[in-house]
């Protein structure tokens, strides 16, 4: 699609159908991008660096909210111990639904911002997964969310995709398939293709 000389009568879109690049190397090689806002000229055609934009969102809802106290353990193997009072929420998505178990966060990860693996978006903010991801559910820390419990419970939880941020008008928080893939040492193909068929699809 990016090379006019390669245009024939069929296209194998591959992962571009999700608005994703096969790899950062491919993106840089074909677009020669060094500045996210730059444009390059390919023959007589202008190609913007935003040629591909992620189009897939993976969302769920909160099924339970709970207050936990210091010393409480969360998840299989009690890998997460609560160090200060915390508000947690349960979402009905686990490794069976495509949430990689490698995104689990024991205490050793959660205390090192930047080492934290699994996160989701709630009310426009990143909320870390706490403890091990289970087969059909995960637990997230929503302590930082200041909305009422009713508002939180009725909010979408974004696993992959964008969500309007409450911090600034017009701003969005985003978690991409590329980000998740990098965190667990795999490729974006695996992240988007492992979402099972029974998950409801909405096409817009």
Question: Could you describe the 3D structure shown?
Answer:
It is a single chain. The protein is α+β, with helices and mostly antiparallel strands. The chain has two domains: 4-48, no CATH class; 58-193, Lyase, Ornithine Decarboxylase, Chain A, domain 1 (Beta Barrel), CATH 2.40.37.10. Helices cover 15% and strands 25% of the residues. It contains five helices and twelve strands. The longest helix is centred in the N-terminal third of the chain and has 8 residues, at 24-31. The chain is elongated. The two termini are 23 Å apart. The model is unreliable at 33-46 (pLDDT under 50).
Which helices and strands occur, and which strands form pairs?
Elements lengths: L23 H8 L7 E4 L2 E4 L9 E4 L2 E5 L4 E2 L5 E2 L4 E6 L15 H4 L8 E4 L2 E4 L9 E4 L7 H5 L2 E9 L7 E4 L1 H8 L3 H6 L11
Antiparallel strand pairs: 1-2, 3-11, 4-7, 5-6, 7-10, 8-9, 8-11, 11-12
